Amino acid sequence: MDGKRKELDEIVRNEDPKRILMARWVLKWTENDGGAPRAKARLVLQGFNDPDALDGKVPTASPTATRLGRQLVMLLAANSGWRLRTADVATAFLQGRPQERVLSSEVPRDAADLKGIEPDALVKLIRPMHGQVDAPRREWQRASDDLKASGLKLHPLDPWFFVSYDADGNCEGFILLYVDDMLGGGGYRKPDSNYSNIIEAVKSKFKLLSG
């Protein structure tokens, strides 16, 4: 529940009923690294009731890598002799751009107990959460900003492909975005390569599960 403190931040009183969205737990079973079963719970907003989305006022387009794009960057890495690395961005939607709209949620009673707030209290959403219609877009916007701030350049033809260039303008590495996953490759071992520094900058900006 600690991660939810980023999005379920403050108690709200006398909120506009149209801007109050219910949230529900989604439960599923996954596996630990050793194969042992592990229960996983995710608090999901009922975004289909978002009043701005129902009025068609919320942009939701979120670029993501295509199958062809993934094949092409793997071909680039193989041809260049680069090692590929993958990483999963933990709680990706919670790291999205802060809310610009006013939305609140009535969370389940057990979630309120975990948070230590009154049952049936309303909470203001300060960051996107799962189920929000524009959460993927806001996560992509934040990720794009941080990757560019790390020294990568957005490819002019592909909004999910970020490239590192050497002093001669040649590609020396890349990171591909696929929703909350990253695929990267580059010339780590070249003495004059800036790609290693870029990777360290990326690690400092994202909470990565691996890579």
Principal-axis shape: elongated
The helical percent reads 10-25%
> Strand-and-helix sequence, N→C?
EEEHHEEHEHEEEEH
* Strand order, largest beta sheet: 1-6-5-2-3
Instruction: Please state the oligomeric state of the protein chains shown.
Output: single chain
In what range is the share of β-strand residues? 25-35%
Q: Poorly predicted ranges (pLDDT <50, ≥5 residues)?
A: none
Major sheet attributes:
5 strands, mixed
Measured on Cα atoms, how large is the radius of gyration?
20 Å
H/I helix tally: 5
Nearest-integer average pLDDT: 82
Describe this structure in words.
The chain has 211 residues and is an alpha+beta fold. 24% of the residues lie in helices and 28% in strands. It is built from five helices and ten strands; from the N terminus they run E-E-E-H-H-E-E-H-E-H-E-E-E-E-H. The strands form two sheets. It has a five-stranded mixed β-sheet, with no helix packed on it. Strands 4-10-9-8-7 form a five-stranded antiparallel β-sheet, with helices on both faces. The protein is elongated.
